Amino acid sequence: MTTDSNWALDEFGLADLGDARRTARLVRLAQEFGAQPSRSIPEASGSLAMSKAAYRFFSNEDIRSQAILDSHIASSIGRMQSQSLVLAVQDSTSLDWSHHPATQGLGRIESKFTQGLMAHTTLALTPEQVPLGILEQQQVWTRPDELQAKERTKRSVDQKESRKWLQSLAQGAQERMPD
After folding, report:
1. pLDDT tens-digit readout, 9-33
2. Domains in the chain, please, with CATH?
3. Model confidence over 77-91: pLDDT tens digits?
4. First CA to last CA across the chain, in angstroms?
């Protein structure tokens, strides 16, 4: 069982970020921000130097978000090992940046008036609803301008956004925990 003092090390200590100092920074950021999840980066950082370090970390193009997620997934699988039954629950999330109209690379999310990104996550839970962690988070994507309804129905499943359900099942739960 993880104690409060080392949870971030257990979750992110194995992240391969190309440099041990980056991994140490990730662990420290997780500890700081995890202790104050509702605060902004400058508020949670506690100092201007820590805030600048956090922003440098998040904007570093050499740090792959998948490497951070992979470390968490490995910890999640470790927690799953002691369970006789694990539920793999999936859901899609809209990340709404409608109030940031200058942001580039976004797509429609709910209507023609909203813009942002989509993400699809598979979360491992016990039957008692205890979260064990993320098993899979498909790439974040943007939706193209809406096709006409009759065009959407003619596409095969592998060309539709709904393929995410089958991909998450195959990549998340079945591949990582076949039994």
Report:
1. 999 999 999 999 999 999 999 999 9
2. 7-59 (1.10.246.40), 84-176 (no CATH)
3. 999 988 999 988 888
4. 23
